[in-house]
Amino acid sequence: MTERTYAFEGVAELIDEIVARRLAWGVVTNKSMRFTGPLTRGMPLFATAGAVVCGDTTPHAKPHPAPLL
User: Fold this and answer.
1) Which 3 state secondary structure label does DSSP give 43?
2) What is the pTM of this model?
């Protein structure tokens, strides 16, 4: 799963800037934790994420605002 997965151009630089500014950041996805967990743990890009919220970790999935709140 992590071998052919990559971030869009500019995302790594954006995260570097967020971290440099000491801002908190995380991931909100509609994918289930079954897929998101291994992916975010397996890619260095997500090492500084403060939270990972998946479609099955809250009562409502995206586009409902609950996962972001």
Assistant:
1) coil
2) 0.81
